[in-house]
Write a structure and sequence with these properties.
The chain is an alpha+beta fold and about 260 residues long. It contains five helices and eleven strands; from the N terminus they run E-H-H-E-E-E-E-E-E-H-E-E-E-E-H-H. The chain has three domains: about 55 residues; about 90 residues, no CATH class; about 55 residues, no CATH class. Strand 6 and strand 7 form a beta hairpin.
Amino acid sequence: MAKASKKKAKKERRERRFEPASTNNPMLVKIIGAIGAAAMGAGAYGQFAPGMRAPAGDPIKYAAWILAAGALVLGAAIWMGTSGEPALRVGDGGVGSEKGGLRRLPWWAIEKIGFVDGAVRVVGTDDGGVAMTILASLASQPQAAAWIVKEARTRVPNVVDVPEDVELPEPNKNAGQVLPLEPPQIVGRRCAASNKMIAYEPDARVCPRCERVYHKLHVPEECECGAMLTHLQPHAKKDESGDGAKPKAEASEEANG
């Protein structure tokens, strides 16, 4: 006979990837790009079309210069239409930046999230313990900024120092590219409560909000992020099944009649 109860499937970890937008006027970029493309077309025609006729003729005077100038103008339009800022990621793994390779600030390692000079500023340490700062500008990364604050207020509200009067856009559920995340690296990390090394994955318990790791024997009732962890404590399953010792409060009530 099959077991009546089945283990719940683990929640899939995800994050959103946000590409930066140019801060230049889009219409100006389009006009400059159109001029450059037209100049390239005219220059290419003047340079190569005469040689394709019968009899072949000489290229039109200055056609090569027009072609080169058009290429430069088009290149300038492309440069103006892009941003030099890195793509940002926000999700279960924390806040990440793709500048010089992908680096993340896990939620549990974020020290402060503030608002400075028109940008959401995230300060903390990455997975390797190296200090790191990530900026999400409202001009180029409005949705990334909105999602950082939204997720942080849910996961690690104690580190959020963004004034309520800051006009952040409403987080759009369709914004960014949703990407799957691998399970967090647990083995080799230390318990946040006892500093004990996690040698085996089954010995670990992970906070569902900030992903702070605890050894199964040292899980506190409440995580540093504010999440309740009583369901992760060793006695939780015994109490639910009725096989374990009764909670102290209940035992005390029975003793007092």
